[in-house]
Sequence to fold (309 residues):
Amino acid sequence: MPSPIPGEADTNGAVQEDVDDDTEMQDATEEESAAAARAAAEQRRERAEAAAALDAATAMEVEPEGPATPPVEEEADPLDAFMANISTSVAAESQPKTRPSDDAELLGDDEIDLVANEQDPDDILAMAAKLKKKELPTINHSKINYAPFRKSFYVEPIELVEMNEKEVDDLRLELDGIKIRGQDVPKPVVKWSQCGLPSQSLNVIQSLGYDRPTSIQAQAIPAIMSGRNVIGVAKTGSGKTIAFLLPMFRHIKDQRPLDSQDGPIALVMTPTRELAVQIFKECKPFLKALNLRVSPIVPSLIQARLADK
Fold:
């Protein structure tokens, strides 16, 4: 075989030795990487266990020593509750109001909640009265001993007794065509002296300048003074107020004097405040002469408005 070239053997040997060294270095590097990976995995496991233990300790409820004390409930402050209701009402009013469709209004859908923009004070009072309404007990008046009193004070004058039916009809026709309903209706009077009023009332009537009774007064006063129930219909300014006030004064003066705990003898109810004030003014000229007292009672509507501070 040919002889090796000088230096070639050494080269191959060196090359072989270099290859062995690289293999050994690669093996060492893989072992270190595996060890480092195992160490990192071990550290991650330890950290996970520590975190889990910490979470378990935080979530654990510590039992108090001794018997448990129930929490003390604080008494609700009425002012805080009132202000909370106000805040709720203001928040509800500030929400946009919904209007039902035309079809719903026509059909009357019961499921639609209608919310008014403004509340009528009369509606508020009506609701309050409905809530506070109490049923009055039924009273058997037949078992109560009421003091007797006189209802009829009228004595027909001779001038009217002598009038026949035709003359009475003509008189009613002259008095703005008076129309009557009922049985045995008294004849209308033509002078104040025929009404059966006391002298004190007649003096006040003369001082006020009332010459003769008006149509409603001429027919209503004799009927009321006779103890009859009367419904009078006449135009404004015809003297309806005096037509029932004069007989009322006569009835009041015929009653016994009031005791300290007695209520009023007569009561006049009106549908409006203005009419109550007007009737009170009509009574005033007769009060001093007849020694009477009138107390006008009119309700006043108070609206409470809550302003945001």
In short: Confidence is low (pLDDT under 50) at residues 7-24, 99-117, 302-309. The chain is about 50% helix and 0% strand.
